[in-house]
Amino acid sequence: MAFVSRVIGPVLSQYMQWFPVVSLTGPRQSGKTTLTRQLFSDFEYVSLENPDARQLALDDPRAFLARYRSHVIFDEAQRVPSLFSYLQEIVDETNEPGQFVLTGSQNFLLLKTISQSLAGRVGIAHLLPFSYAEASRSGQVPVSVDDYMFKGGYPRLYASGVPSSDFFQAYIQTYLERDIRDELGVRKIADFERYLSLCATRIGELFAGSTLAVEARISPATASDWLSLLEASFVAFRLRPYYRNFGKRLVKTPKLYFYDTGLACHLLGLTSSEDLLLNQPLRGHLFENLVVSELLKHYYNQGKRPQLYYWRDSNRKEVDLVIEHGGQIRYLVEVKASATYNPHAFATINSLGDLMGIPPEQRVLVYGGPESFPTRHGQVLTLSDLGQLVEGE
């Protein structure tokens, strides 16, 4: 497979014109190293997972940075957090944009270090696995939405042809051993793996962390810590409920989703995209997850902060997504996995849209069909056309 041009590329190039340092975080295997080395081909590349390079940076950071003083990509930079204070001296001394690129797969560790030493000097971006459009450009166009949903977006799946089951088994093992145990200090790996798999069974549901802790046979405090680790390493995330009530009593519990549906399918024990057709409720939750994660990719790929929520009131009236911009609701979104359009799918967002003063053109149904089109109720969009909900914000 030839190099797939990533949508976020122009954002990173722009940041290099503005900031001395650019930070690119994202899950392991999302393509950070490939992208930065291709985009900044004239930069030196130093992996801080290399024991020799890491040891030099830890033992003598001044000598290390004398050797790599400018135009350098430091991969997995969170491995040497003490380096950042010395980087601050260099960028403050020269005050030139485009000096360093920092990549990392542990968002919490990297951003914590940046906030302590490099605040205001760094352009921060996030790279998730392939979007649907990027996967389609890889030369291995997904056969169907279900195929993409099952396979997920990790670039190696498209570059090497490795079976999904083999890739994700190795991915989880690497994640557990390197990130969770070695970097973040979790010792109960078997318990953590069980907790991770249980999280996959909660996709699209109200996330009751205490209940899940009981099932995982861990304490609520441990469960809370581990969920934070899943978020910090770009495995899972919580979607918050919308905060303005319009006279309604709203549910305040977040929902849980995974950044990649392929990983979620593997954790759920699915062996092919055909398995999705045999379990329609599960397919519906995974398709909803797919839509939310695709929207996140559109936001991050444009260097924008996601403003996504869901709505559910005490009468269980629910809208899958509320997209906000500038403190105002831009879109109400209903998600249906069916490939057939049914106007009844607009019922809830039409009811709430009338209450909130949201016009029909800002009411959206995302479905599993092949064609987007307008209706008198609102827009009907395919997965391919989701980006228009983010463009122009």
Automatic annotation (TrEMBL):
Domain DUF4143: 177-338
Record-linked InterPro entries: AAA_14, DUF4143, P-loop_NTPase
SUPFAM superfamilies the UniProt entry points to: P-loop containing nucleoside triphosphate hydrolases
Protein name: ATPase
Pfam families: AAA_14 (PF13173), DUF4143 (PF13635)
Ranges for domain AAA: 20-134
